[in-house]
């Protein structure tokens, strides 16, 4: 769906693209570069909005042929059931193949230990890395965006990782023009971020434009939540609320979707895409600032997790 | 014709803006952080939690005012050392446009970072301090913008408040810079007197400079054209991937997927495939799910041809009337971006559009000093942040344009085959735009630098 941006006459006529078309074209170019240069790419797919947009772009990039990649989900064991249901339905609908790396299995096998705070986000790194190694993926698409977080703002579109999945921000390859360098040694892989230049608002505008279906928890609904570290967490078997925390019913929605133990809901009455976009455009908080406990651990929390091999 | 699609009601204004990529050049001393901070802040792109985090860290360090550089210094090492190590990308929007800002650091790995930021920029903002005027660094910035062929350059003469908002001070700097940059071939230069600290002419027009009737920095960013007349440049379509579903529904579909690198493609056009030289006609263009008759850069599309000919990744499809020549001998200007040097005789990989070939560095005729455009013949090797001329022989022919004609199909990378390091960023052809009469060169009488 190409839109000629003709709103500002005299500025960009006649051959301009709207910013969504420009971002879409860039992302499709990235997907095709990877398909052309790598042996075994995989898309990290969590059922969150960014990975949903990634998959949508991949479907468009290769149509009418099927997407030449499989999907990988790192299931923390504390994922929202609505999102898992969406994930499975989407995989089914497009005839895709899904690999699941389970944090719960690692914990049950004694290979990972539950953290005292119950947060499972940092625990995803080992299952992710081992899945990449075991299944020999050489390119791993992530939905990370540079506008999300300041360590991510320094990330390349093609980001080389060693065999331990580690990121070394000081030894990154300069990335010029649209020439991506995906050379890597056996055992290394490249993380690829097709949505690098997208903002949260771009993602929502694109979802609206393309009519992409999302898990319902992105829209306002009544839910039993309780307050922890200034955030509304969902009550459930994963570990909340504790004795001193009181659950209450609130009208909320999720602005990001991750592990239930560290993803906060926001108060919202936005039940439609239009309403969500209006809400985000007016918000004075960033999406991670509003909803992610794991990033509040320290100023360099994301950088540290990324160095370890996190998404 | 590509259709103009009805947007979801209420989203028109937000969804149909254009995208401008721009880069800023200058050091902290010129007030670059203040300018960037003000652009982000006044366009309401710095949100409460980000500002609170910056305030908290600034206070922790005993600073009275929030240090806006902390917004972009994303790495621990950067914050600890108080320097920016790497290009930082910032995103902001107004009602008219979406912006991608490549904020390039002023000191460390300076050339490498500015070249990186400028490579994708439609516009570069060069900052000078009104008290100092055009200095060595300013000339260096102008040279990088000219070298990378950034179409629009803004000279922001900052700290006008410190020179009494005097027109004469501004005019002198603007004149000197414009003369210098035009000589280098910068096609469009806009000089704007500002005070980033006081906010004059950044977002809001200044109340102190009635003599200036031009746009503010933001107004200029919002209105500068992001596309040029594409019909004037030849179409280039590097093939990324061949789409062959081989399904019951599409048993014979064969499409060539790629992003149009320049110009316009039309159904019915006679095309040549390079380097093979085979010819065919465009039968159809699929623009991500929609069949169209015409498509243009930088759209990602899938092209179908009338004849079943051998085409694979790395080939280039171009209109037969304006197909480029192919060559195995590349003369180019490179910016060396790696820590390990590049020496004559080096065996490298050359990545040009979607094609990667083996290559050997035959000669390094000269190295260029950006400060004064002086040249140093036969340097033997290039080290990090050097800019120089190279002669490269490739193992296979390339459909290479001059960088002056096409940034996308005139650029390439040199890659170390041993460890995959990106060694150098190359621009084919002459370094700076030639003068119409070939005379009036800036400083060159040396061979290898034809201005």
Automatic annotation (TrEMBL), chain A:
EC number: 2.7.7.4
Source species, domain of life: Bacteria
Listed Pfam families: PAPS_reduct
A molecular function (GO) term: nucleotidyltransferase activity
Region named Disordered: 288-311
UniProt domain Phosphoadenosine phosphosulphate reductase: residue ranges: 41-264
UniProt entry tagged with the keyword Lyase: no
Transmembrane parts of this sequence: none
Entries under SUPFAM superfamilies matching the protein: Adenine nucleotide alpha hydrolases-like
Alphabetic keyword roster: ATP-binding, Nucleotide-binding, Nucleotidyltransferase, Transferase
Enzyme class: transferase
NCBIfam families in the record: CysD (TIGR02039), PRK05253.1 (NF003587), PRK12563.1 (NF009214)
Stated family: Belongs to the PAPS reductase family. CysD subfamily.
Protein's recorded name: Sulfate adenylyltransferase subunit 2
UniProtKB/TrEMBL annotation, chain B:
Protein name: sulfate adenylyltransferase
GTP-binding in keyword set: yes
Organism: Streptomyces cirratus
EC number annotated for this UniProt entry: 2.7.7.4
Gene3D superfamilies documented for this protein: P-loop containing nucleotide triphosphate hydrolases, Translation factors
Signal peptide location: none
CDD domains in the cross-refs: CysN_ATPS, CysN_NodQ_II, CysN_NoDQ_III
Highest taxon, organism lineage: Bacteria
């Amino acid at each position: 769906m190409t839109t000629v941006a003709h709103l500002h006459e005299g500025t960009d006529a006649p051959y301009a693209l709207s910013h969504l078309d420009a971002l879409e074209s860039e992302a499709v170019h990235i997907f095709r570069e990877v398909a052309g240069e790598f042996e075994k790419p995989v898309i990290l797919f969590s059922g969150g909005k960014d990975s949903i947009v990634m998959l949508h772009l991949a479907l468009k990039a290769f149509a009418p042929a099927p997407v030449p990649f499989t999907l990988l989900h790192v299931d923390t064991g504390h994922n929202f059931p609505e999102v898992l249901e969406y994930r499975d339905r989407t995989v089914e609908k497009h005839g895709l193949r899904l690999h699941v790396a389970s944090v719960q299995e690692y914990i049950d096998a004694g290979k990972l230990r539950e953290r005292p705070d119950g947060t499972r986000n940092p625990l995803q790194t080992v299952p992710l890395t081992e899945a990449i190694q075991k299944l020999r993926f050489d390119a791993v698409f992530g939905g990370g965006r540079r506008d999300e977080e300041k360590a991510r703002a320094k990330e390349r579109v093609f980001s080389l990782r060693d065999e331990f999945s580690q990121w070394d921000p000081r030894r990154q390859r300069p990335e010029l023009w649209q020439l991506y360098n995906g050379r890597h040694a056996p055992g290394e892989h490249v993380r690829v971020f097709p949505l690098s230049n997208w903002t949260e608002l771009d993602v929502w505008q694109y979802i609206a434009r393309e009519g992409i279906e999302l898990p319902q928890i992105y829209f306002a609904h009544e839910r039993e939540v309780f307050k922890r570290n200034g955030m509304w967490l969902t009550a459930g078997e994963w570990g909340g609320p504790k004795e001193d925390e009181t659950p209450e019913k609130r009208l909320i929605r999720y602005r990001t979707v991750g592990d239930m133990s560290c993803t906060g809901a926001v108060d919202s009455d936005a039940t439609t895409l239009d309403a969500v976009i209006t809400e985000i455009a007016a918000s004075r908080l960033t999406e991670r600032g509003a909803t992610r406990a794991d990033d509040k651990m320290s100023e360099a929390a994301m950088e540290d997790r990324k160095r370890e091999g996190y998404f | 014709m590509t259709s103009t699609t009805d947007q979801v009601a209420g989203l028109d204004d937000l969804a149909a803006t254009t995208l401008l990529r721009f880069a800023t050049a200058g050091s902290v001393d010129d007030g670059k952080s203040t300018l960037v901070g003000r652009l982000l802040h006044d366009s309401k792109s710095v949100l409460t939690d980000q500002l609170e985090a910056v305030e908290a860290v600034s206070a922790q360090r005993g600073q009275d005012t929030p240090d806006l550089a902390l917004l972009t210094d994303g790495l621990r090492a950067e914050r600890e050392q108080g320097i920016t190590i790497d290009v930082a990308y910032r995103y902001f929007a107004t009602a008219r446009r979406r912006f991608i800002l490549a904020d390039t650091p002023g000191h460390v790995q300076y050339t490498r970072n500015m070249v990186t930021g400028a490579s994708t920029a439609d516009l570069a903002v060069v900052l000078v301090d009104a008290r100092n005027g055009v200095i060595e660094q300013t000339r260096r910035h102008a040279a990088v913008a000219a070298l990378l062929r950034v179409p629009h350059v803004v000279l922001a003469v900052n700290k006008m408040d410190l020179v009494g908002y005097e027109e004469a001070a501004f005019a002198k700097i603007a004149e000197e810079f414009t003369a210098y940059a035009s000589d280098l071939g910068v096609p469009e230069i806009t000089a704007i007197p500002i005070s980033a600290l006081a906010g004059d002419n950044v977002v809001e027009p200044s109340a102190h400079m009635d003599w200036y009737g031009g746009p503010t920095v933001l107004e200029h960013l919002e209105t500068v054209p992001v596309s040029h007349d594409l019909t004037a440049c030849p179409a280039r379509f590097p093939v990324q991937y061949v789409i062959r579903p081989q399904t019951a529904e599409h048993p014979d579909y064969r499409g060539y997927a790629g992003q149009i690198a320049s110009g316009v493609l039309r159904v019915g056009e006679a095309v040549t495939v390079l380097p093979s030289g085979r010819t065919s006609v465009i039968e159809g263009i699929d623009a991500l799910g929609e069949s169209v008759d015409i498509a243009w850069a930088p759209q990602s599309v899938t092209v179908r041809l009338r004849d079943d000919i051998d085409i694979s990744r790395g080939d280039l499809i171009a209109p037969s009337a304006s197909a480029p020549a192919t060559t195995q001998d590349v003369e180019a200007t490179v910016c060396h971006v790696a820590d390990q040097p590049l020496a004559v005789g080096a065996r490298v990989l050359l990545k040009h559009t979607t094609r990667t070939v083996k290559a050997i560095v035959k000669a390094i005729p000269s190295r260029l000093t950006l400060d004064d455009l002086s040249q140093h013949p036969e340097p033997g090797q290039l080290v990090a942040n050097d800019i120089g001329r190279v002669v490269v022989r490739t193992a296979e022919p390339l459909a290479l344009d001059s960088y002056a004609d096409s940034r996308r199909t005139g650029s390439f990378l040199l890659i170390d085959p041993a460890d995959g390091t990106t060694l150098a960023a190359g621009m084919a052809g002459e370094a700076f735009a030639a003068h119409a009469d070939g005379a009036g060169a800036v400083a060159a009488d040396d061979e290898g630098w034809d201005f």
